Every structure is written in C-alpha cells, then in structure tokens.
C-alpha cells in the first residue's frame, strides 16, 4: 500500500512537471529541450501508471515496459546533454536586453544634447543680439542725455545689459560648449578647467596627450560632461585644494584619471549628488566603457574611466576628415 501511494505521488509530481515544461516551451520560443523533457516526464508518468497497474494485479507485457523505459532514458539523456543550449539562449536574451537598454540610453542622451544645442543656439543667436542692440541704443542716448543722475542711470543700465550678455554667453556655452564642437575634447576640457581654476581659486592640473584628434560626438560630449560633473562635485562637496586630471589616448583606448585631495566619502552610501555617481557610470557604460570610483573619508576621491574605441568602432576625425577605426584582429 505504501509503495502504491508513492507511485501516485510520483505520477502527480511528474504531471505537474510536464505542465510547467509546457509553459516553458512557449516562454522559450518552443525550445526543443523542453519538448524532450515533456516527452520524458510523460513517459515517466506512463511508467509509474504501469507499475501501479502491476501492483493492482493487471498483467502488462514486459516488452511494453522496456519500450517506455527506453523512451524515458533517451529523452531525458538528450535533454540534459542539450541543456547548455538553453543557457546560451538565456545569455543571448540578456545580451539583447542590455544592448536595447544601451541603445535607449544613448538615444536619450542624444535627444538631451540636441535639446541643449537648440536652446543654446536660441539664446546665443536670438536673445544675445537683442541685448547687444539695446546696449548700442543706450550708448547713443548716453551721449545726448543731460544731467549727472540720468547719465548714472544709463551707465547702470548699460552695465546690467553687459552682465546679462555675459550670463547668456556663459549659459549658452554650458548648455552646448562651442569650443568642444569646434576644436575637440582636449580644448573643451582645457577651457572648462581654466575657467574653474580662475573662478574658484583652485589648483587644477590637467595633462593630456591629445592634440587635434576628434572622436565620435557621443564620446566627446559624454566624456566632457562626466569631467565637468566630477569637477563640480569636488567643488561642491569635497572642499579640496587641488585636482589632478589626466586624459590620454593609448592603444586605441581613451583613459581618464581623476583625483582630488578633498574630504572623501563612502562610495556605498554616497547618495545622488548632482549628476550622481551611478549616472556617471551609466553614461560611460552607454559607450561600452568602464568607470571605477574609489574614495574613503579623509582620503580624497579617485576615478578611472576607460573607453575602448575599437570595441564599438567609433568614427575618429583627425584634421577635419573622417576615418573609421578598424577593429584589430
């Protein structure tokens, strides 16, 4: 009686396994492995039913028993041997998902930069000339107006317009750096570093072996934004006196080494400040690069970014002509 109960339980378990295998067949686009397991589990259920009938006294041909056992053995053995195909299928799905996420993130970044560039152009070419015309009109009035108080008022108004023009140029440049677009990554970073050093009375050491090399727009813009955010985070949160920055092209890869002597932090509990460390890593990841940020309280911060140019076959522009980097074999 006990053996009969075990056989009934085995039949139920194998039937449930068969149902789950049927669902997985559809979920994995009718993978043959699950078909083999379905046949094997079904044959096992038949074998248990036959054994149950034998215990009940029903005569069953031994040849039929051997045939069922043969089917079970073949199906399960082949299914197990081909399980590695299932793992390859899962890896392929994960790769496609990661590739899709990267493309979506890259498309979002491109749309963001396009909006920045459009807004920057509107400010620079629209509002800027209007303010310059107003300044010219005030300059004409200043020669004709009488009274010291009126001249002082016009002078103050002219000064405010000058400040507005300067602010518009600065905002426009921050939105879409013209030097980066016209002269490349090294000149763009150097210009930003020089402005930060003067404005914040900070020592920033910038070294690079880049000259006139031009890279794909995504690479230049994202790397420039990351460098700007790293410097801004150091200025806002690190209370540092010195920043070291190296940007080099070596063996087909762009390598960024960044460090400050600030108060440091715990990367695990840093939270989201400004662009955020996780967002910086995501931006670098969208280029197929790696970003390693290390820090500890009282020991400053160090970031290492590596972008393999040969991995994604980006377009490198040098001297105004476009050349596609070929993947090294």
Could you explain the architecture of this structure?
65% of the residues lie in helices and 14% in strands. With 329 residues, it is an alpha+beta fold. The strands form 2 sheets. It has a 5-stranded mixed β-sheet, with helices on one face. Strands 2-7-8 form a 3-stranded antiparallel β-sheet, with no helix packed on it. The C terminus is likely disordered.
What is the residue-averaged pLDDT? 77
Integer tally of domains: 3
| Total of DSSP H or I helical runs spanning 4+ residues | 9
- Overall number of strands: 8
Question: How does CATH name the architecture of the largest domain?
Answer: 2-Layer Sandwich
CATH class of the largest domain: Alpha Beta
CATH topology of the largest domain: Heat Shock Protein 90
Low-confidence stretches: 312-329
- Which structural class do you get from the secondary structure elements? alpha+beta
Overall shape: it is elongated
Largest sheet: 5 strands, mixed
* Spatial ordering of strands, largest sheet: 1-3-4-6-5
Give the radius of gyration: 34 Å
End-to-end separation: 69 Å
Q: Keywords, please?
A:
329 residues; alpha+beta; Heat Shock Protein 90; 65% helix; disordered C terminus
Summed up, what is this model?
With about 325 residues, the chain is an alpha+beta fold. Helices cover about 65% and strands about 15% of the residues. It folds into three domains: about 1-80, no CATH class; about 110-175; about 175-329, Heat Shock Protein 90.
What's the SSE blueprint?
Blueprint: H1 2-27, H2 32-55, H3 62-81, H4 83-144, H5 148-175, H6 178-183, H7 185-200, E1 203-208, E2 213-214, H8 217-238, E3 242-250, E4 253-260, H9 277-285, E5 290-295, E6 301-308, E7 315-318, E8 321-324
Parallel strand pairs: 1-3
Antiparallel strand pairs: 2-7, 3-4, 4-6, 5-6, 7-8
Helix pairs in contact: 1-2, 2-3, 4-5, 7-8
